[in-house]
Amino acid sequence: MAKLAIFVELKFAAGLRDQILPLLSSHRARCLRDEPGTLQFEILIPHEDETKLIVYEVYENDAAFELHRTSPSITQWRAQSAHFAMKGDLTKCALAA
Q1: Residue 71: how many CB atoms within 10 A of its CB?
Q2: What CATH class is the domain 4-92?
Q3: How far are the Cα atoms of 12, 22, 32, 38, 39 from residue 64, in angstroms, in the given order?
Q4: CA separation for the pair 82, 79 (Å, rounded)
Q5: Domain extents in the chain
Q6: pLDDT tens per residue across span 20-44
C-alpha cells in the first residue's frame, strides 16, 4: 500500500499559540513513540500568522492513519485542546514518486 500524507491547518484565536504548541508537541512525541505506522509528524509555525499552526504527517498507509485517528494520544489531544475552539482543515495526499 502507498504512504499517506496528511496536511492539517489549525486555526485559533490570537494569543493562544503558546498554550497550544506544547500540547501539540506532546501529542507529536506520543504518536512517533507509540504508533509504528506514524512515519513523520512535523509542526510548522507560520512566520506571519500567530493564529495558525500547520501539521504535516506521513503514515505507512491508510490503515496506519485510521489507527492514529482512534489512538489514545489523539483522544488525549482532543480532550486537552477542546477549550481552544480550534478549526482544523485536513487534506489527505499521496506522496509523489
Answers
A1: 17
A2: alpha beta
A3: 28, 24, 12, 7, 10
A4: 5
A5: 4-92
A6: 999 999 999 999 999 999 999 999 9
